[in-house]
Amino acid sequence: MPEPPYLAVIFTSMRTPGDNAEYDRTAARMEELAAEVPGFLGIESSRGSDGTGVTVSYWTDHDAIATWRAHPDHLDAMSRGRSVWYEWYELRVARVEQARSSRS
Q1: What is the pLDDT along the chain (104 residues), one digit of tens a residue?
Q2: Domains in the chain, please, with CATH?
Q3: How far apart are CA 21 and CA 37, in angstroms?
């Protein structure tokens, strides 16, 4: 990751019961496609056993986020998410001002 500032898109969701294989394939493909968008910096994701998940993607600027949001495959995945995969979701965009790590 570069030195801040940069943007974080925080996607919190609750999965519906159902086909995890299709969801997992789509999520992996979305990560591959996002990585091709200029301004993509990285992604972190976690999902609890209760179905609640948090995915944070990092971007250089709002234009990069807008480019990703408008990607046709991402639009399809978002539609599928709303209709099939998520009971609910919340999306937030935040500016990262500081970052520290214990990694060497």
Answers
A1: 899 999 999 999 999 987 789 999 999 999 999 999 999 999 999 999 998 999 999 999 999 999 999 999 999 999 999 999 999 999 999 999 999 988 76
A2: 6-96 (3.30.70.100)
A3: 25
